[in-house]
Specification:
The complex is a heterodimer of chains A (219) and B (134).
Chain A (H helix, E strand, L loop, with lengths): L2 H19 L3 H8 L1 H16 L4 H13 L2 E5 L4 E4 L1 E7 L3 E5 L9 E4 L4 E9 L2 E6 L6 E6 L2 E8 L2 E5 L11 E4 L13 E10 L2 E6 L6 E5 L2
Antiparallel strand pairs in A: 1-2, 3-4, 3-14, 4-7, 5-6, 5-14, 6-7, 8-9, 9-10, 10-13, 11-12, 12-13
Chain B lengths: L1 H18 L8 H11 L3 H19 L4 H20 L3 H19 L2 H24 L2
The chains are: A alpha+beta (219), B mainly alpha (134).
Amino acid sequence: MKRNYFLFLNILLILVIISNLFNPIEKIFQWIAYPFDYVFSKLSFEMQMRKSNAESLKNILFIINDQNILLKETEDFQFEIPFGIILNKNDREILATANSKIKKNSKVIDENGVLVGFVEHIFSDRVIIRRLGWGNNEIFGTLNDVDVMIMEKSGTLYIELPENLEVGEDTVFINLPYYVESIDNKNMAVAGKIISRSKELFIFEKKELESILIYYFEE
Amino acid sequence: MKYFIVLVMAIISASWDRWMGEFLFFSFPIISLYTSKFLDNQIYKVLLGLIFTIIYFSTRFSLGFFSIAFFICYILIIEIASFLGTKYLSTLFFSGALALFLSFINYSLFSFVSTIILVSILYFINLRLMFYEK
């Protein structure tokens, strides 16, 4: 009878090793629980509204649903920016709302134009955002008119600075060239400090999230 | 048929613990308490734990060291609880140890306390009648 324990433990060990080698396999398990996630996310959404004033938050969400930020409008083309409010923060993911339809993997920025993360899951108006650092993306940015590569790997950000480039100890803004003039003429950027160095890469600590409003950008 | 029930129960409890575990209570210590007493075959108990750990840890955190540690803890608790029987304190130990592990990961002591209160209420309402038929 004890043989069952070791059989199932071995299965788990093999699954852990495979999922660490190929990260997208974890997403398959998320689809299994999708119908239950859809129901329970609504419940936890209602629970987390009780932390702040639930009635006023519902009113705000109701007002938000009708309003849109229009960037460009022509006869057959309309470019809008969907936006939402952060409800719960975690060190790995954020639960937020969205006022209109958004796509997966669209970029999320806060009020100051700082990149927060990428959209991972959508349950109607509830959105789960994967924070910057926890994905497998490689982004290009510019620092003092020099191209810089940003890599994210298991919770930390690495940047590749060219030689002879000196950076102070204050917060560094690395501009991202996707949306040239986004909201209020602020460029989309990654903000934070450079802590230390490992071989050719510099470890980058991103700034704490302060604002509640977030905007979604599709590519 | 029993395999199907175990699978659905594991998925539901994993999804509940992911969303509501921090704020209300953990469902897995309660569900595993019921199944460990009433599903006689050992495979069902271990399969429930395996499916729960895979789905819960892959959605909430990531599959890694803590998922293996949780599964080993679950196996050890099953083995110890089979000696202790179905008295009140042993059921508290069974569900309390699992709830302590889950609340330690989620940084919420409140849900550990609420889970233990819920188990102790369920024991005197429901479980004691089922075990001893009196």
